Q: What sequence folds into this?
């Protein structure tokens, strides 16, 4: 694996290997006083963030540091980026400085793909526009695997703004690869064009279970093994996609009453940051069904695994 | 005038039997076999196909304003090398071609360079701002004699303003060329609204944004008894609306670009902005419908929408890139690949869609004329059996944003003649 740009074309074996590595790293670090592995000593990882982010950036930084990599953080504000330097020139500059891996978050869909075409360093997509956020999907898969044992045949219900969600796109592709069935619940205004074909491969052969779509959360919940709540961004609330925040919350919010509709074993996920009271009720976040803190914890291990597979494992093969 | 020129062994419109053409004083003086060409320079055609010189209703020559991407000189060279003898230069320059001064400047530069007839297109609205009409009459009365008006790049979306523009240009014997795009439906749009863009997270440009404007404008043209030309038709739905309008005698014409005939949104994967155009590349079903409509005549002609862009405006992330591709030097080959080779058009048909119809729509009286005695010797000679590999860096345009990079295309322009003068021969400009 040279880059991690999207979950769309990740083979099942690769996903499983990444999740197994993340699990092994988690076990290796469990209960250790000094959480530092020498694996990436002397390697430089640059996080290049064109959007504000707390958790993803911190998660990558911790992942790199626990593996002894040198981690450099660059953000769009207060750098040459703000002075109007092109993405390409920034990328070439970082490569010339000897970065081994660039972790990029950018508001333009495809920015990570473009970056990978310009530089020879490894590229990790940490979120590109409304396209993909592969490590989020991997950490969600890791969390679901822990809670449910397997994803094969499990029904995962994704709720909310699928149209603008890179989290949803990454998860739909990845979870299908792992054998899950995806059910989407959203108002029709927030669903991507042709999403019902996403369970099918590029040539329309069945790749897994076809994605199903509904608009009623109450009927979807009893049959679901996991429910993933998507954030509703403020700009969407005023974009005319639905009449009001209140109506959205009533129709698509995960309330305590709705939590009771879920089967006993079902898991509640949220990629964060959450709007408590909007798409998810305060008490639901803190219920034992919610795996939100586990998601964050697994995020570090999954990102360690990705860095390992990109930077270390490849060297061993060479 | 220079020495007469005898074209030997030429096949007009791809006819089976070659003939000779004797060109004198800019016109076809004689046509037949065994002509007495004493004293004439001889050009050995060796069975090349002759068509009337190609006419492009839609090119962006970028001068004035973006001379780093293209100039009237380099654009004229690209046009002549592509077999063109007339080019309509779009108005979205800087300053905008919305006054007699600017259109006369463009026209005069075209004349000075002399490789193709450069017809400036006038802006419909002042500054392309869509607020009030530009001085259409002054541009029509200028030395440039503007007959085609367009806000291309943007749409005249205000219904009342569009109605007034159509009515007013009827009095000028002009035509409004509409870039059909409802801006409310395409806010932030990056690619054809379909499954591929949805997966790639690129905001969709819905077909309805084009089709609704085309339908509206056909009704406005009907009521104004005015001439409407639809730029770069890109959807199967627009074809159906055009059919409806033409059946009712509405004065509407339409063009399709070579890239919409050949390329589809399958190109989006990888996010290379060389494939970013406006309107966007659409589905295979759309391009099939466009090919059929061009063959049938529902879509009248091919226009390149030649849109050079400096490297920094393409070598960036998709959403930051400017839309548009080079088209002048590849158009004929793409039409061969998509229309002639599959049997949808013969060479008469190519002459119709790339020369005769566009000349009539744009009001270029001495272009797109028959290959016959007494007619202007404005011709392109084509080797239909040759193939070539497209290299952006080797094209005459200053920019190199071709979506056909590395593709092998059929057909080669061997020579282009403008009123008896050879403008390009064997891929080289002759003056």
A:
């Amino acid at each position: 694996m040279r880059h991690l740009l999207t979950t769309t074309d990740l083979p099942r074996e690769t996903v499983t290997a990444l999740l197994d590595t993340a699990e092994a790293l988690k076990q290796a670090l469990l209960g250790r006083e000094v959480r530092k592995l020498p694996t990436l000593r002397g390697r430089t990882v640059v996080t290049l963030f064109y959007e504000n982010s707390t958790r993803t950036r911190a998660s990558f930084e911790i992942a790199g540091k626990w593996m002894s990599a040198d981690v450099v953080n660059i953000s769009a504000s207060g750098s040459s980026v703000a002075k109007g330097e092109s993405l390409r020139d920034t990328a070439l500059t970082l490569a010339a400085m000897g970065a081994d891996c660039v972790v990029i978050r950018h508001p333009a869909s495809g920015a990570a793909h473009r970056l990978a075409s310009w530089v020879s360093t490894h590229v990790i997509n940490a979120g590109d526009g409304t396209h993909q956020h592969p490590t989020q999907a991997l950490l969600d898969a890791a969390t679901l695997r822990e809670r449910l044992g397997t994803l094969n045949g499990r029904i995962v219900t994704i709720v909310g703004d699928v149209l603008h969600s890179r989290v949803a796109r990454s998860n739909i592709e990845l979870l299908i690869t792992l054998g899950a069935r995806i059910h989407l619940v959203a108002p029709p205004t927030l669903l991507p064009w042709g999403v019902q074909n996403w369970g099918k491969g590029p040539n329309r052969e069945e790749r897994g279970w076809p994605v199903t779509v509904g608009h009623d959360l109450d009927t979807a919940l009893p049959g679901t093994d996991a429910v993933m709540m998507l954030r509703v961004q403020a700009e969407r609330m005023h974009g005319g996609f639905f009449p009001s925040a209140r109506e959205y919350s009533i129709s698509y919010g995960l309330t305590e009453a709705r939590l009771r509709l879920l089967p006993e074993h079902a898991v509640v996920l949220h990629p964060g940051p959450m709007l408590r009271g909007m798409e998810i009720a305060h008490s639901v976040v803190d219920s034992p069904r919610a795996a939100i803190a586990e998601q964050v914890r697994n995020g570090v291990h999954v990102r360690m695994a990705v860095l390992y597979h990109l930077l270390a494992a490849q060297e061993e093969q060479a | 005038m220079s020495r007469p020129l005898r074209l030997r062994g030429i096949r007009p419109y791809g006819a089976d039997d070659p003939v000779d053409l004797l060109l004198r004083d800019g016109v076809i003086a004689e046509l037949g076999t065994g002509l007495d060409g004493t004293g004439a320079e001889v050009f050995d055609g060796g069975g090349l196909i002759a068509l009337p010189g190609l006419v492009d209703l839609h090119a962006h020559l970028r001068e004035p304003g973006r001379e780093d991407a293209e100039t009237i000189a380099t654009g004229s060279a690209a046009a002549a090398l592509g077999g063109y003898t007339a080019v309509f230069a779009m108005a979205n320059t800087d300053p905008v071609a919305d006054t007699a001064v600017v259109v006369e400047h463009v026209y005069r530069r075209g004349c000075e360079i002399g490789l193709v007839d450069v017809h400036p297109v006038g802006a419909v609205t002042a500054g392309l701002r869509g607020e009030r009409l530009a001085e259409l009459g002054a541009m029509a009365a200028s030395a440039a004699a503007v007959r085609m008006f367009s806000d291309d790049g943007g749409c005249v979306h205000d219904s009342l303003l569009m109605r007034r523009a159509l009515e007013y240009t009827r009095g000028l014997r002009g035509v409004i060329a509409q870039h059909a795009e409802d801006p409310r439906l395409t806010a932030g749009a990056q690619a054809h609204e379909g499954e591929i863009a949805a997966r790639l997270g690129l905001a969709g440009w819905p077909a309805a944004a084009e089709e609704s404007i085309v339908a509206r404008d056909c009704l406005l043209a009907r009521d104004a008894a005015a001439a409407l030309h639809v730029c770069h038709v890109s959807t199967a739905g627009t074809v159906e609306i055009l059919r409806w309008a033409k059946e009712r005698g509405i004065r509407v014409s339409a063009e399709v670009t070579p890239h919409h005939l050949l390329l589809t949104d399958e190109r989006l994967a990888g996010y290379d902005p060389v494939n970013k155009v406006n309107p966007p590349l659409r589905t295979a079903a759309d391009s099939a419908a466009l090919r059929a409509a061009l063959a049938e005549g529902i879509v009248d002609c091919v226009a390149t929408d030649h849109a050079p862009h400096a490297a920094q405006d393409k070598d960036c992330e998709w959403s930051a890139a400017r839309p548009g591709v080079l088209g002048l030097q590849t158009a004929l080959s793409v039409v061969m690949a998509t229309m002639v080779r599959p049997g949808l058009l013969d060479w008469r048909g190519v002459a119709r869609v790339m020369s005769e119809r566009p000349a009539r729509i744009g009001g270029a009286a001495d272009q797109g004329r028959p290959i016959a005695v007494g007619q202007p010797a404005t011709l392109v000679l084509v080797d239909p059996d040759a193939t070539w590999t497209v290299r952006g860096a080797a094209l005459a345009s200053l920019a190199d944003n071709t979506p056909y990079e590395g593709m092998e295309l059929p057909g080669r322009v061997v020579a282009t003649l403008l009123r008896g003068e050879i403008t390009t021969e064997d891929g080289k400009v002759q003056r």
